[in-house]
Amino acid sequence: MDSNAVLDLSMQALIITGKLAAPVLITSLVVGFAISLLQSITQIQEVTLSFVPKAVAVGIALLVCGHWMISEMVTFTHVVFDRIPQLLSGG
């Protein structure tokens, strides 16, 4: 296995990781920003107020995007398993 194959596989793994994490992270970011904006407008500085809406929003994001996330991960796993003979032969 040469270094180019390892770098290519690592790059694909990082890209799929970013794609899978994006819906949850973006949802959490948007909801957190909205809650903090609401807190600053109303001057309610309660730390626990932002946790429940974020948790609910992340749960909804996982319900909506979960099937896509699993199918992307299965596709990536199939690609990696299909490349095993090529990686082991070095060609």
From TrEMBL:
InterPro entries from the UniProt entry: Bac_export_3 (IPR002191), FliQ (IPR006305)
Predominant location: membrane
Keyword tRNA processing attached: no
Localisation: Cell membrane; Bacterial flagellum basal body
Membrane topology qualifier: Multi-pass membrane protein
Keywords of the record: Bacterial flagellum, Cell membrane, Cell projection, Cilium, Flagellum, Membrane, Transmembrane, Transmembrane helix
Gene Ontology cellular component terms for the protein in this record: bacterial-type flagellum basal body; plasma membrane
Residue spans crossing the bilayer: 20-39, 51-70
GO BP: any one term: protein secretion
Pfam families from the UniProt entry: Bac_export_3 (PF01313)
Family under the similarity heading: Belongs to the FliQ/MopD/SpaQ family.
Function: Role in flagellar biosynthesis.
Protein name per the record: Flagellar biosynthetic protein FliQ
Organism the protein comes from: Frigoribacterium faeni
Gene transcribed to yield this protein: fliQ
